[in-house]
Amino acid sequence: MAIERWDPFRDMVSLREAMNSLLQDSYVRPNGNAAGPQSGFPLDVAETENEFVLHAALPGVKPEEVQITVHGDTVLIRGETKAEEEKKGRTWHVRERRFGAFQRAVSLNAPIDSDKANAQFENGVLTLTLPKAETARPKQIKVGASDKK
């Protein structure tokens, strides 16, 4: 068992870090959403040897309202949803569904072959299959024996 020396300054947070955390946690955007990852749409990213697979939850969004751009190793998903029209005689008690422009950029650790990319939209879930560019795929190099003596 190793003996670890106690350092009282190790857990101390600087004033700047404390203020940044406080402001980041309490900042509310004009559309009512809190700042941070919760303000965007939920996204899952998985990787295999040959491709990335992204699943984005976009409930209430129509496929034609979504634009996807791939540039190098960055994927940008954006779009816009329209608010329901106001009707006479209707008073809102709760209105939490989002509307307006949305976007999210994800940087992956390898360039994407955008010509072979595929996008599917089913039940409010966007699924992107993004093959890695040939230059980003791992290649095995065989080692040969030298005949020199």
Characterization of this structure:
By secondary structure, the protein is mainly β. The protein has a domain at 41-83 and 100-136: Sandwich (Immunoglobulin-like), CATH 2.60.40. It is 8% helix and 31% strand. The protein is built from one helix and seven strands; from the N terminus they run αβββββββ. The protein has one helix at residues 15-26; strands at 43-47, 51-57, 66-71, 74-81, 100-107, 118-122, 125-131. The strands form two sheets. It has a four-stranded antiparallel β-sheet, with no helix packed on it. A three-stranded antiparallel β-sheet has the order 3-4-5, with no helix packed on it. A hairpin with a 3-residue loop joins β1 (43-47) and β2. The termini are far apart.
Number of strands: 7
Q: How would you describe the shape?
A: flat
State the helical fraction.
under 10%
Question: Could you please say which CATH topology of the domain at 41-83 and 100-136 applies here?
Answer: Immunoglobulin-like
Unreliable residue stretches: 29-39
CATH class of the domain at 41-83 and 100-136: Mainly Beta
Distance from N terminus to C terminus (CA atoms, Å) equals: 53 Å
**Structural class by helix and strand composition:** mainly beta
How are helices and strands ordered from N to C? HEEEEEEE
Rounded mean pLDDT score? 80
The description of the largest β-sheet is: 4 strands, antiparallel
User: Rg, please?
Assistant: 24 Å
Strand order of the largest sheet: 1-2-7-6
The CATH architecture term of the domain at 41-83 and 100-136 is: Sandwich
